[in-house]
Amino acid sequence: MASQVQDDSDDGMGDFMDKFRKQKYEGAFKEDNWEEEFDKVPMFMKTAPEEIDPKTHPDLACLQSIIHDDDRPPEEQARTFKDEGNDYFKEKKYKRAILSYTEGLKKKCCDSELNAILHTNRAAAHFHLGNMRSSFNDAVAAKKLKPDHLKALLRGAQCCMEFRNYGEALQWCEEGLRIQPADRKLLDLRASADKLKRAAERDARKAKAKGKKDRTKRGALLGAIRERGIKLLKPERSSKHSSDSEEEGRDRGTAAAMAGMNLDGLGSQEATGATVFLDEQGTLHWPVLFLYPEHRQTDFISAFSESACFLDHLTVMFGEELPSWDTDRKYHPQNLQLYFENFKTEELHQVDLKTPLLKILQHDRCFVKSGTPSIIILVKGSAFCKEFLSGKKVYRLK
């Protein structure tokens, strides 16, 4: 009887082995992708997937549910999330680390030291992502929970350095050094914060002194313009207005110039950025724009002394060498007529070449627009000059 059982057993095993040899095991690893398949086994995974789908990774989802079992004590759950966050942090997956540390803090466990570590670790992850304000807030929270937590104090100091708040960075460093006087990172950070704080204070003093000096100079400049009775016209906000809006803008600007002067109209719109200035001798120097409508050309004098006349500059500008655009060689000083425009009425006022700039600027119809007096230059008696002046009111400066 025993012999018969043994034979039956042997026969069954034999049949099983024969079947195994003929038919491969379903789901077995293949030689060409066994490493890839091996990495899908949770125990042997090198890195966890970004998203754990129960359908794709059922074994891993099962393990995760065990790890995050809500029936465990809050301290144990928080510690699990802390470890998970640390693993993500080591892999430089800072966003996922932040999520893990946040989940740990949500457990509201009674272990203040563990909560301080969660805050500090989350502060580190935020710091690496450049979220300095969030990092600093976590450092503050960690310090409240554990005032002698050195890493939290170091992180708070580093955040303050990023904010360029060097005084507060020094305070965080001092708190840390009272706990660990020989900490090299805190010592280096304190030295750097102290150096930058002194430099910032020095720059602030210089800026304050410069601001005071500039205000004094601008006050003297405005006083000189007021004394001379020169009227400033503020620049229009936009050049794309209708004719009615343009006229209204001129009226407002003129009224403002006559009612009360300020320095808003002193900003030159020219590419040079030149502005009027008062020299040490008390003489004003203006940026002046020359317009040549016949050729659609301009000239710019960045510092035209108020005591100089136009002939002084024109003699130099149209001396032996005439500009290339003057193909007819007509622009000699003795052939030229100069005008300034009344921006309110669009009237033209002829200027004598030997008249000083100051006398023109003091004319009751002259308004300095955008800080730059502008002068129209025409060739006397030319066909273009006659056509340009036709239909316009022209006055000769007396």
Automatic annotation (TrEMBL):
Keywords: Repeat, TPR repeat. GO terms for molecular function: Hsp70 protein binding; Hsp90 protein binding. Pfam families: Wheel (PF18972). Residues 198-218, 233-253 are annotated as: Disordered. One of its GO terms (cellular component) is cytosol. Residues 207-218 have a biased composition (Basic residues). SMART domains: TPR. It comes from the Eukaryota. Residues 279-388 form the Cns1/TTC4 wheel domain. InterPro entries: Csn1/TTC4_wheel (IPR044059), TPR-like_helical_dom_sf (IPR011990), TPR_rpt (IPR019734). GO terms for biological process: protein folding. The keyword Repeat applies. PANTHER family: TETRATRICOPEPTIDE REPEAT PROTEIN 4. Belongs to the TTC4 family. This is Cns1/TTC4 wheel domain-containing protein. The lineage of its organism: Eukaryota, Metazoa, Chordata, Craniata, Vertebrata.
